[in-house]
Amino acid sequence: MAHILIVDDDATMRDALAEVVIDLGHSACMAANGMLALELLDTEAVNAMILDLRMPGIDGLEVLRRMRERDGAPPVTVLTAHATASNTIEAMRLGAFDHLTKPIGRADLAQVLQRMLASVEESGGGVCAEEPEALIGSSEAMRTVQKTIGVLADSDATVLVTGDTGTGKEVVARAIHEHGQRNRGPFVAVNCAAIPADLLESELFGHVRGAFTGASADRQGAFRQAECGTLFLDEIGDMDIAMQAKILRALQERVVVPVGGKPVPVNVRVIAATHRDLIRSVHDGTFREDLFYRLHVVPIHLPPLSERIADIVPLAEYFLNRATAGKRLSADAAAHLIRYGWPGNARELKNAMERAAVMVRGEYIHATDLTFLDDARSRQDPVVDWPDEDLPSALARLEEMLIRRALKHSGNNRTDAARRLNVNRQLLYAKLKRYGIEVADAPHEGKDGIEGSERSEGEV
């Protein structure tokens, strides 16, 4: 049984609310104005509060302001007959659990009471200290990544991290740095796609004073800033072809040439990352083959989150804990997260948990709090109007659609498409023939090509 404080200047409304509260198995105490409510909070152990917005003396918003200064204040739902954008926003900003309009039905009152009381069960603890984002995951794919990091961390080998946007490539790079012998040195990250091509050389290699208009002082550049540490070149697949030649020289000779200056030796480990298919870029002539091999000393591939089902809930709980202390996922919310496809990968999951942490007042986040994910997916994925057909025909249609989608996402690279579909290449070739799907042969897929010696798991 919980003790509920009802604050309203209307005696009829107070009595009606108290009657429902008692019928629901709780006890009630009442206050006719805000000052009396604050005094009751000093003398009684209140588990939740129903607070009218408009009252003589101090109104509901002022009561909320004063309650913010108290430790262990109970959750408060504000009631008003005159809801406006202004008072709704202000009430929620001041910490109201919910903001409802009068008249309120019995079922609505019962629901909000249940949610408020659930929010205080087992609550407590302080805010966790901010820490660098960790590499979370127990799926087989992530276990492989973690083992690879452990093996290569103490070496100076160049690493190429690949994977779709949002899979956590920088987190992997930081983990390599933190667990390696260079962890006392700096970790410098440069997003090659975010810097204009004409400024990237100066950003990476530095410049001397007077080298160009606006160069009023010497600049070290990222390579020298990362001295004795790690330089992370994110989205290197977007780098201009001319700049690639200069990066190749820096990697080969461990020397950089500042714009307008003389060669300077550097001692730095380089980790590169890209969401692009560099093998295809080599074939297309947009990425240097010699630079690819220089970067591809130790490759690490991060699969999309949709292929790492075991990591979804642990990652969600981790992001939720970083966003706010004390909030948890209910069982139905966890199931909802697992069913969702995560086109934005771990980054989308992180954003979703940060949003839920802000918008949900209670301790537990439920599936109903995550409906914005379904709204986003419905805008992205068109509804398929399946024809009236038997099961074998429908399954064949679905299989063909999945194969065409995998080919599209892999740029018609059949090896990559087979990996995405989790089938061996011979089976994929048979399916292509069956459905009459013609795919032009890619030179880099041959036995003597760059990826000819690599096979996906399960391939024959």
TrEMBL record:
<protein>
    <submittedName>
        <fullName>Response regulator</fullName>
    </submittedName>
</protein>
<keyword id="KW-0805">Transcription regulation</keyword>
<dbReference type="Pfam" id="PF25601">
    <property type="entry name" value="AAA_lid_14"/>
</dbReference>
<keyword id="KW-0597">Phosphoprotein</keyword>
<dbReference type="InterPro" id="IPR025662">
    <property type="entry name" value="Sigma_54_int_dom_ATP-bd_1"/>
</dbReference>
<dbReference type="InterPro" id="IPR001789">
    <property type="entry name" value="Sig_transdc_resp-reg_receiver"/>
</dbReference>
<dbReference type="Pfam" id="PF00072">
    <property type="entry name" value="Response_reg"/>
</dbReference>
<keyword id="KW-0547">Nucleotide-binding</keyword>
<keyword id="KW-0804">Transcription</keyword>
<dbReference type="InterPro" id="IPR027417">
    <property type="entry name" value="P-loop_NTPase"/>
</dbReference>
<dbReference type="InterPro" id="IPR003593">
    <property type="entry name" value="AAA+_ATPase"/>
</dbReference>
<feature type="domain" description="Sigma-54 factor interaction">
    <location>
        <begin position="135"/>
        <end position="358"/>
    </location>
</feature>
<feature type="modified residue" description="4-aspartylphosphate">
    <location>
        <position position="52"/>
    </location>
</feature>
<dbReference type="Pfam" id="PF02954">
    <property type="entry name" value="HTH_8"/>
</dbReference>
<feature type="domain" description="Response regulatory">
    <location>
        <begin position="3"/>
        <end position="117"/>
    </location>
</feature>
<dbReference type="InterPro" id="IPR009057">
    <property type="entry name" value="Homeodomain-like_sf"/>
</dbReference>
<dbReference type="Pfam" id="PF00158">
    <property type="entry name" value="Sigma54_activat"/>
</dbReference>
<dbReference type="InterPro" id="IPR002197">
    <property type="entry name" value="HTH_Fis"/>
</dbReference>
<dbReference type="InterPro" id="IPR011006">
    <property type="entry name" value="CheY-like_superfamily"/>
</dbReference>
<dbReference type="InterPro" id="IPR058031">
    <property type="entry name" value="AAA_lid_NorR"/>
</dbReference>
<keyword id="KW-0067">ATP-binding</keyword>
<dbReference type="InterPro" id="IPR002078">
    <property type="entry name" value="Sigma_54_int"/>
</dbReference>
